[in-house]
Amino acid sequence: MVHFKNRYMVMEVFIDAGRGECDPVILTQFNITKVIKDSIQLSFGECGLAASLGSLQVKYVNPVTKVCIIRVSRECHQKVWTAITMVRCIGKIPVSFNLLDVIGHARQLHWSAMKQSLSNTSWLPVTVSLRRSSRLYRPALTKLEA
């Protein structure tokens, strides 16, 4: 049995809603996949697009924290990364992608996404007391730092 070697790219999307239209774009798997495919075709042509389409998949999108996880084959991950860097807008809204982590196994993916979610806690309600929040997050943070 053949084991497929994939890379998971954890990316953050920065949306510049002030420079675009009045309505900000809602991040969905379809929007991000379409933009990536268009950028690959523009940068590498139809042959590059066909080579990367077999494994290209947006696995997770969080519209609140603007974090997405993209799965791609090990052979094509640098090509896809380059194409994602060239993306400048989704629809008519200017965006930019920031690569946070490149991971080889899905087991490590869970910890990386959790670490990113814990570092982006500015959207959490402020009503949680410090003692309670530190007690809740301390076990997770010690496992992540180890």
UniProtKB/TrEMBL annotation:
- Pfam families in the record: RNase_P_Rpp14
Q: Tell me the keywords, alphabetical order.
A: tRNA processing
Say yes or no: keyword tRNA processing present: yes
The answer, when asked if tRNA processing is one of the entry's keywords, is yes
Which GO biological process categories is it annotated with?
tRNA processing
- Return the GO cellular component terms, semicolon-separated: endoribonuclease complex; ribonucleoprotein complex
Question: Domain of life here?
Answer: Eukaryota
- InterPro entries (UniProt xref): Pop5/Rpp14/Rnp2-like, Rnp2-like_sf
PANTHER family to which the protein is assigned, alphabetical = RIBONUCLEASE P PROTEIN SUBUNIT P14, RIBONUCLEASE P_MRP PROTEIN SUBUNIT POP5
Family (UniProt): Belongs to the eukaryotic/archaeal RNase P protein component 2 family.
Q: What is this protein called?
A: Uncharacterized protein
